[in-house]
Amino acid sequence: MSEQDTVKLLREGDAGIRMGVAAIDEVAEHAGDSEFRQILLHSRERHRQLQHTLLQMLARYGADGKEPAPAARGMSWIKTNAKLSLEKSDQTIADLVIDGCDMGVKSLHRYLNQYAAAAADARELIGEVIRTEKELASACYRYL
Question: DSSP class of residue 33?
Fold first, then answer.
């Protein structure tokens, strides 16, 4: 186990969770279907729970979380608001959420590979974040 890899993996996971929560916050209020809105809000809460656990792990290593890159956050905001300004529909929201989940899963897998020497509990937690992203994407497919 490499402490450095563990901290880097957890920090990247934190940045990803922050992006996910921000994206859900941007679109949830626009969901027309109440069940869809509940799916989004439940997932946001699950992301926050995972983030809490992740930040506790980082604290054990004397490290802080990580804000997402401003460019990534800005591009996400632009894409979301541009699409929603054209059409505020559940289909548009589902499309945006699925794209975000797919990017998150891809990034987290990349970090799992890049920081292969990270502690098992950190790798397991990132695996749980990946599963949460996949579950959210799967729940959104019926709204496309």
Answer: S
Q: What tokens were used for 116?
A: 């292969």
Q: How far, CA to CA in Å, does 46 sit from each of 28, 49, 61, 77, 79?
A: 15, 5, 23, 22, 24
Using DSSP, how many helices (H) and how many strands (E) does the chain show?
5, 0
- Asked if residues 134 and 23 have their Cβ atoms less than 8 Å apart, the reply is no
What's the length of the chain? 144
| pLDDT at res. 60 | 96
pLDDT tens digit sequence for 83-127: 878 888 999 999 999 999 999 999 999 999 999 999 999 999 999
Predicted TM-score (pTM) of the model is 0.92
pLDDT in tens, 11-27: 999 999 999 999 999 99
Q: Are 87 and 100 in contact (CB under 8 A)?
A: no
